[in-house]
Amino acid sequence: MAGYSTAVDTLIAALGRLPGIGAKSAERLAHHLLKCPPEEALALAEAIREVKERIRHCQTCFHLTEAEEPLCAVCRDPRRDPTVVCVVEQPRDLMALERAATYQGVYHVLLGRLAPLQGVGPEQLTVDALEARVRAGQVRELIMATNPNLEGDGTALLVANRLADTGVPVTRLARGLASGSVLEFANKEMLADALSGRQRF
Amino acid sequence: MAGYSTAVDTLIAALGRLPGIGAKSAERLAHHLLKCPPEEALALAEAIREVKERIRHCQTCFHLTEAEEPLCAVCRDPRRDPTVVCVVEQPRDLMALERAATYQGVYHVLLGRLAPLQGVGPEQLTVDALEARVRAGQVRELIMATNPNLEGDGTALLVANRLADTGVPVTRLARGLASGSVLEFANKEMLADALSGRQRF
């Protein structure tokens, strides 16, 4: 069997290493890049290069920021309340909360969640930096917004335990039925959360 | 709402222009590229640049080939029979046939299919080059391997009509039941093809 040329094979292999892109998708994407105008393909190549060269983590909260800014857009914003800190696993969780546009405090990005089986312990996360931030004294409340699953909950518990002696209240996001969903299809855990967290009208 | 930095937004936008990659996927891919080792991300950027710089179409069959080779790997291969030409729509169709590893002839890639509604007529395809190739006299048989759908069939018909006066036999790939499938789930067209194309044991 004759293969593609080396350059095409290399591109297919590189695309296939992206998460959720299988062999077939990688081939399809490669063909798109071969056919599309050079500007479009080179813009993508350039954008990849740019983020690897310019994007750093915020020195305070570990969200993404451009290299020349030591603090991210949220931490720099004087309208945000720096005494309320919402703890998320990843920058994309932060962005999801920002899109909801109801939160006025700042963040702390852990850059992962505890996953002992994959060798991710507290030292792989930014827990130490969070602890230092809280112990420095400025924080009034810590809102745990890790994912509502086993690993997210474990991570939240670790953080809460570490900071128990500081006296800073640690809360977590409410759980229950998803707005817009139907009760009939809610699973056991959702219903249990919804019952135990029930609130007065 | 605070956005990502410009570099990240640019990358997400560039990824979102790829076919089959929606806004959510683009964000997920961007985060992967931000987190992965620089070598991996830059290898992808470089691979994109490489194909845009180095990949050209074969002068004979319009398959993909590296810039320094005027002919593709199939056309260069002395073991292939240059008198039998299989006509496909895209390089990826050629690759699918090559993976089956049963075809010993050469190819002609049309680089598309007739789609009048999208403004793709014969002049957007490599039909003229195919005609010239056949009229040059070396071709014994033309096998139409365009996609078995309305547009593919229309394209095959156009080519067959154009070359009717040359006397070169034009065949098309057999149609019928997909090997490994079950009759119960075959659709009307497949069953009609299977019946009309039935063969003796």
Q: Any overview of this molecule?
A:
The structure is a homodimer of 201-residue chains. With 201 residues, the first copy, chain A, is an alpha/beta fold. Chain A folds into 2 domains: 6-53, RecR Domain 1 (Helicase, Ruva Protein, domain 3); 80-201, Dna Topoisomerase Vi A Subunit, Chain: A, domain 2 (3-Layer(aba) Sandwich), CATH 3.40.1360.10. In chain A, 43% of the residues lie in helices and 13% in strands. Chain A is built from 8 helices and 6 strands; from the N terminus they run H-H-H-E-E-H-E-H-E-H-E-H-E-H. Chain A has helices at residues 6-16, 23-35, 38-54, 73-76, 91-100, 127-135, 150-162, 188-196, and strands at residues 55-57, 64-66, 81-88, 105-109, 141-144, 170-172. In chain A, strands 4-3-5-6 form a 4-stranded parallel β-sheet. In chain A, helix 1 packs across helix 2. The mean pLDDT of chain A is 89.
Helix/strand layout:
2 copies of one chain form a homodimer.
Chain A: H1 6-16, H2 23-35, H3 38-54, E1 55-57, E2 64-66, H4 73-76, E3 81-88, H5 91-100, E4 105-109, H6 127-135, E5 141-144, H7 150-162, E6 170-172, H8 188-196
Parallel strand pairs in A: 3-4, 3-5, 5-6
Antiparallel strand pairs in A: 1-2
Helix pairs in contact in A: 1-2
Output the keywords.
Helicase, Ruva Protein, domain 3, alpha/beta, homodimer, two-stranded antiparallel ribbon, 8 helices, Dna Topoisomerase Vi A Subunit, Chain: A, domain 2, four-stranded parallel sheet
